[in-house]
Design goal:
This protein is of the alpha/beta class. The protein has one domain: NADP-dependent oxidoreductase domain (TIM Barrel, Alpha-Beta Barrel). It contains 12 helices and 12 strands. The chain has an 8-stranded parallel barrel with strand order 3-4-5-8-9-10-11-12, surrounded by 6 helices. The chain has a two-stranded antiparallel ribbon with strand order 1-2. It has a two-stranded antiparallel ribbon with strand order 6-7. Strand 4, helix 2 and strand 5 form a beta-alpha-beta unit. Helix 4 packs across helix 5 and helix 9 crosses helix 10.
Amino acid sequence: MTLPTSRFGTTDMRITRVGFGAWAVGGRWQHGWGQQDDADSIAAIRRAVERGVNWIDTAAVYGLGHSEEVVARALDGIPEADRPFVFTKGGEVWDDAGRVSKVATSESLRREVEASLRRLRVERIDLYQVHQTPEAGNPVEEYWQVMADLKAEGKVRAIGLSNHDTARLAAAERVAHVDSLQPPFSAINRSQAAEIAWCAANDTAVIVYSPMQSGLLTGAFSAERAASLPADDWRRTAPDFTTGLAANLALAEALRPIADRHGVGQGAVAIAWALAWPGVTGAIVGARRPSQVDGWTPAAALTLAQDDLDAITTAIRTTGAGQGPPL
């Protein structure tokens, strides 16, 4: 199966409009989604590749290394010509008790990239990203120089930032070009519009995460499901799933007639909305089993009409869901 692709910033890569997000496949950890079966994870990743998805986004911290290991197992045996790009992230480290810290020093990033190369079983990482701004507050110029050095040394093919604001993006750009940004973005969480605009002006690719707002915009979520989430699922106490739940579910319901017109699920409409935002290159979409992949891959080729976008803008305003400007 062939999916549409977009140029990935100034790099020589072209990526499909949707990519497989491997956060949930890490299983249980401090910010995990609860227990996850590795066989289901591997089957979901392989289904995504079979359906034409040509990139996977993971991070060292997902499952404290486990997600990267699962990705490697899923890609084992796939011919080189058919292998998807592998994107991962560093800058979050953990101790023996599983406590996570946001660290971005030269020594740490160099140790982390070597560990990710081993877990992923690759000689070069296609995109290496700094996951979060460091707790110590060290300047972005310091850790971005390390990232630029890793690229120059051939350890990584491209370098990016995740969860960084416009001021840090601009400071990093003065050191070396920012190949990509990974911000959260959905019809509910529109707070990163300024960062996406900065990227569009600077030829920086944007791969948004949580375009379905962690399941809220799939059409399959409900107040009852939110109340029954396992204790080790981070969503159980998140504001979007508690105080903001009613407005968010109302917005999800407003996507239903649009989905019906296009013959797709509501989740695919939510993803297509994020992809329609100026400056967005691709969307990261998670899956814990193959059937979920089948539900969102149609978004890669779905173009919403202006009437569709207007209806979603109206629904955002009417429900009061989320934050940030509507399209």
